């Protein structure tokens, strides 16, 4: 009978000079096992009851009496024939087809990856990310519960919680993570292993504390004033890492809705700012390599404390650099909300979508297809996806809504999308318990304010619209604080069943 194995923290040893340096391999592994790693290397594994698996070499596994072997796709049948039914056999998989083939072939566990790019593996077939990992897990819904899964590739203390959270689905979750450099290159493997063990057992700070509850448009309209009022009372920090063109406009909009804005593209100070209880907006309108480094620092800082984060992938499909930037940012951290036009959300989804600058380009989707897309991406990322347009579509993967407020002048001024992002982020900071509800409340306030501004006699076009719009945002905040919620009678909000 195959032994019961704890796959939670699977140590993959690496004795190469760049990773191990001058440390003793056995000492490093012994410390890691004492710190909580659950699969490891000979000479120390037996003492601590940790199984030994040999990579690729079936003959070595047989010779040393190892508990199992980890092999490639083509070696499954021969390995089982040689090693017998009681030996643990793990198989590397990077696609749904490979996973199903290995499961049908009798593998005991699957090593899913490569999740993130890593210097420890060469000739990597593909980087699948958390989305690819989740897709593979979903495909194993009907597989036996005895089939276990771990993921591998770039897993460390900075991302292990996010990988577990974003890859999980209602069908299946990872049983463990494979760790290489985060232990083998650590100065203190014992402490590193203990830290990873603790992270594995706890959800990330930004994780939803409960499943999304059913909510109707009427429910949202009833609760939106409370969030608007709370925002005005709390004045949460709204940290904007936004493009240079709209910083002043974004700051004024944030002030008008009740937030306290700071415009800082310096990632090194994000750690201090994240502790102040506000939200982060990353807007990649100004796209530079240095900018992406600063964005990543800030994202990690806010993720570490569970601060709300919003990503605005401006012009995501316009250039190869921007497309790569989107991949980089989504690999480097978790976003509570991703907001973009149709072209930008298509790029986020992984589809090839060529944009002309920051414009979305000609729409190729009808309303139902837009709703379907935002729901699918939100379910995949375990966050909220907002697609802006004449009608906005927003979903958290379970609940999906359409919002048809706003005015064409918003499309004729620079930065309306960017300032909507700042508004939504401020609402997330005021009401983090239901991010979809917070985002919809922010969108309604923003777009109804635009409608109220254009009917003023002094508004003659886009140029006079901007100051009137800021005034309208401020007026809605003030009226709501005094109990006047009449502005919500203009809301055009509907539930979309996808």
Summed over residues and divided by their number, the pLDDT gives a mean of: 92
Helix count from the secondary structure assignment: 20
What is the β-strand count? 16
Sheet with the most strands: spatial strand order: 9-8-10-11-12-13-14-15-16
Shape, principal axes of CA atoms:
elongated
Radius of gyration: 25 Å
Structural class: alpha/beta
- Percent helix among the residues? 40-55%
Summarize the model shown:
The chain is of the alpha/beta class.
Could you explain the architecture of this structure?
The protein has 498 residues and is α/β, with parallel strands linked by helices. It has helices at residues 17-20, 25-35, 45-48, 58-64, 76-83, 96-104, 129-139, 160-167, 181-184, 189-201, 217-234, 247-257, 270-274, 289-305, 320-332, 342-349, 367-381, 416-430, 435-454, 462-481; strands at 9-11, 53-55, 68-71, 88-93, 109-112, 148-151, 176-179, 237-241, 260-263, 279-283, 309-312, 337-340, 384-387, 392-395, 400-403, 493-495. Helix 15 links the parallel strand 11 and strand 12 (337-340).
């Amino acid at each position: 009978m195959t032994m019961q194995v704890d796959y939670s923290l699977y140590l993959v040893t690496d004795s190469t000079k760049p990773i191990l340096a001058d440390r003793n391999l056995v000492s490093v592994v012994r410390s890691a096992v004492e710190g909580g790693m659950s699969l490891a290397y000979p000479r120390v594994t037996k003492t601590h009851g940790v199984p030994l698996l040999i990579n690729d070499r079936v003959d070595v596994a047989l010779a040393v009496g190892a508990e199992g072997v980890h092999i490639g796709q083509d070696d499954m049948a021969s390995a089982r024939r040689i090693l017998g039914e009681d030996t643990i056999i793990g198989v590397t998989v990077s696609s749904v087809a490979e996973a199903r083939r290995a499961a049908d072939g009798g593998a005991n566990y699957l090593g899913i990856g490569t999740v993130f790019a890593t210097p420890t593996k060469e000739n990597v077939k593909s980087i699948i990310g958390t989305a690819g990992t989740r897709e593979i897990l979903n495909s194993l819904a009907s597989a036996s519960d005895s089939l276990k899964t771990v993921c591998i590739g770039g897993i460390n203390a900075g991302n292990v919680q996010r990988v577990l959270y974003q890859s999980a689905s209602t069908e299946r979750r990872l049983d463990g993570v494979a760790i290489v450099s985060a232990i083998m290159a650590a100065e203190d493997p014992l402490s590193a292993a203990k830290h990873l063990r603790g992270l594995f057992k706890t959800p990330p700070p930004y994780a939803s504390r409960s499943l999304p509850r059913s909510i109707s448009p009427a429910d949202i309209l009833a609760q939106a004033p409370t969030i608007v009022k709370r925002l005005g009372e709390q004045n949460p920090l709204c940290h904007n890492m936004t493009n240079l063109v709209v910083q002043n406009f974004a700051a004024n909009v944030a002030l008008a809705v009740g937030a306290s804005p700071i415009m800082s593209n310096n990632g090194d100070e994000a750690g201090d700012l994240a502790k102040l209880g506000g939200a982060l907006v990353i807007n990649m309108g100004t796209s530079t390599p240095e900018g992406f480094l600063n964005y990543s620092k800030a994202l990690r800082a806010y993720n570490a404390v569970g601060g709300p984060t919003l990503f605005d992938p401006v012009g995501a499909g316009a250039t190869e650099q921007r497309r790569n930037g989107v991949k980089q940012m989504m690999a480097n951290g978790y976003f509570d909300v991703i907001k973009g036009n149709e072209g930008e959300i298509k790029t986020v989804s992984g589809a090839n979508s060529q944009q002309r600058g920051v414009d979305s380009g000609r729409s190729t989707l009808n309303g139902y297809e837009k709703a379907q897309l935002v729901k699918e991406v939100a379910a995949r990322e375990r966050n909220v996806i907002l697609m802006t347009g004449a009608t906005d579509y927003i979903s958290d993967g379970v609940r999906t809504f359409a919002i048809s407020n706003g005015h064409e002048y918003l499309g004729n001024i620079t930065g309306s999308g960017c300032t909507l992002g700042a508004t939504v982020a401020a609402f997330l900071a005021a009401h983090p318990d239901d991010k979809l509800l917070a985002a919809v409340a922010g969108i309604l306030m923003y777009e109804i304010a635009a409608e109220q501004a254009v009917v003023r006699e002094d508004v003659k076009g886009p140029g006079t619209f901007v100051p009137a719009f800021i005034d309208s945002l401020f007026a809605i905040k003030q009226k709501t604080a005094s109990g006047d919620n009449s502005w919500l009678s203009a809301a055009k909000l509907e539930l979309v069943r996808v």
